[in-house]
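Course assignment 3, question 2. Fill in each field.
Student: A.L.
Task: Predict the tertiary structure for the chain below.
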Amino acid sequence: MHSRHLWTAAATATLVVVLTGCGEGATPMNDAAPGSTSSATGRLAYFGALPNDRSSGALVLDLATGRQVRMGDQQEAWSVAWAGADRLAVVRGHARISGDGPGELVLVAADGSDEGTPIGGVADVREVASSADGQHLAFLGRTETSSNACSDPAATERMGLYVAAVDGSGARRVVDVPTASRFLALSPDGRTAAVVDMGDDTVIPQGRDWCNPGESRLVLIDTATGVTRVVAGATAMPGAPRFSPDGNTVVLDGSDSGYPDRDVVLVDVASAQATRLSTPDVVEANPVFSPDGRSLAVLRHRAGQDPGATATIAVGAADGSGLRDVATTGTEDYGLAWMSDGSHLVVAGAVVTMACDDDDGRDGGVVGLAAPAGGCDVATATTDLRVVPASGGELRQVSDTVTGFDAGLAAAPLV
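Answer field:
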């Protein structure tokens, strides 16, 4: 359900995805009760393409009006964070799909009225995050551009964690991090960053490369001092971390053996200790705290069954207890966001149709997809965004312009 592990193919597999339904208007996906989503308000940033776009970029959707605008120019975008209520920090470049080009970090107006102003003088940025207090940005990058191909020589400059004011000023490098670092999150007060990395890349064991120097781990970094703590008890395959509104807890999904084994993981920030909420019968992913910190929402489906056929959104207490289904999605879901007023949840999902000419199983299968007998590694997918009241109800489509399997959902802070 989280795009960066759900849609990862086996080494020999090829996933062909046809994204259908690009258009500026949004039509209901099903017949929701009158007024069931009329109160949905707020703005949502995500990755998508409008009809005249040449590539997928960062879009902003106004839920109240249905209006969508593209941020900046026609470059690809692969990481986005709100920099206050009216601007976004966007990582963009010309090589999102191939992954072998540098990323540029820019500040852009949320109404799409400018091309973007570069931040920090860092030439190769991977990810950006912002603090809930609207004062701080953090990003992973380096001043040297280089190839991201694992077979090429590693860059002479290591990747670093940078912090800056929300307007991009005062950017400084906090500490070196492994080049294979991802899933950056910043605490609400900007004092702690959470990052998933692959361990020390200064010493690479035989048979590995700089993309894969060690085992995945979740680390917490003090943004003032650079002191780094490895989280104990985390799973071998951690997903994207998210801080609670009070900053005391980090939530993520994780597993030890791959996608079918994913559970909710809670991390106590003070002790850097993780607790896995094991649910053998249910696959759970993309957990996110409510804006008031009292509740937790998660995407889930029955273990061993077709993800789309049994997929739901569940909501429970902040400690992960008492989860109950509030909506059935009917899609393979890969993004979940809680709108900042707490009233609605937004899900990104896809109707996936396997499309194989050869089903003899020689190519293996795609992780997370329900392949037909014999194996299948080619599929088409129709993707969209839908909204539902957090208390439960019918889902209603609000956009069909979302592209790919990393929706990058980010709700704008309240004004």
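Instructor remarks: The two ends are 31 Å apart (CA to CA). The chain is about 0% helix and 40% strand.
Grade: pending
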